[in-house]
Recover the amino acids of this structure.
């Protein structure tokens, strides 16, 4: 699964970079999402594989905090990029005549930079608060990586401020982007319903179907784990949901975007054709 995730997302990035037809805002954000998925998986899975191979399930305190920090940064970045991609689809479908003016390269870079900046700021604040805790009980984490809630359960310090801040950040980084996604797709659906031909409706919806599938899978599992108080957190449920959004979703994303997107399929075949030509 790890190799498929890395190679699949790397192939998406190479395909977009090599094909001039895909040098558009939508594929710029898709390349960013694929890069984020590679980094996200590399933050967690290699350590899990080492632990399984050596049967030595330990991690240093510093390594644990670093893993938690980068996990949060990349998960939040995923969140913001999905919202930006939904906005991009809204402008393309609902305001097609203004698309090039609204989604110009400068604005795309700005949206990408803001996503990176916000995710780093939000993650750094929680990581700093976590460093202030003392862990005087068991140091055994009932999880396969250093996640927020399992670590919070082990803390002996008062975690009230941390939990308030965590829920505030969850609202800021979860509810607001999700609202952006839902509002964008509400407008998109209204526009699709106005198209008279069934073929036209299918063509427009097919450009959004892959993104909508990824959004549903991502938000469904994240909300299941993080939108609950730490006192009601279940290790078993948390681990199952975490496997989905840390391993399954990043692995499926390249297949979802390539199998449901004719432009991507054509670019993949052209990339394969180029490779064939270069080896002859």
């Amino acid at each position: 699964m790890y190799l498929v995730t890395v190679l699949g997302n790397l192939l998406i990035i190479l395909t977009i970079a090599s094909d001039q037809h895909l040098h558009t805002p939508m594929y710029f954000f898709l390349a960013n999402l694929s890069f984020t998925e590679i980094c996200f998986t590399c933050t967690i899975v290699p350590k899990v594989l080492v632990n399984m191979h050596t049967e030595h399930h330990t991690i240093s305190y510093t390594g644990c905090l670093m893993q938690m920090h980068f996990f949060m940064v990349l998960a939040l970045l995923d969140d913001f990029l999905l919202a930006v991609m939904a906005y991009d689809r809204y402008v393309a479908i609902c305001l097609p005549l203004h698309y090039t003016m609204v989604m110009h390269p400068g604005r795309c870079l700005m949206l990408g930079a803001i996503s990176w900046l916000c995710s780093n700021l939000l993650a750094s604040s929680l990581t700093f608060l976590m460093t202030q805790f003392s862990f005087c009980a068991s140091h055994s984490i009932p999880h396969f990586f250093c996640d927020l809630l399992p670590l919070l359960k082990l803390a002996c310090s008062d975690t009230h401020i941390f939990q308030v801040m965590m829920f505030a950040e969850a609202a800021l980084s979860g509810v607001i982007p999700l609202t952006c996604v839902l509002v964008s797709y509400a407008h998109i659906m209204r526009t699709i319903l106005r198209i008279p031909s069934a073929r036209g409706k299918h063509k427009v919806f097919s450009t959004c179907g892959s993104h909508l599938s990824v959004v549903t899978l991502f938000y469904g599992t994240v909300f299941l784990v993080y939108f609950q108080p730490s006192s009601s957190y279940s290790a078993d449920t948390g681990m199952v949901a975490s496997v989905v959004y840390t391993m399954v979703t990043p692995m499926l994303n390249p297949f979802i975007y390539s199998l449901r997107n004719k432009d991507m399929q054509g670019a993949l075949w052209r990339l394969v054709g180029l490779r064939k030509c270069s080896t002859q």
Notes: The chain has a mean pLDDT of 82.
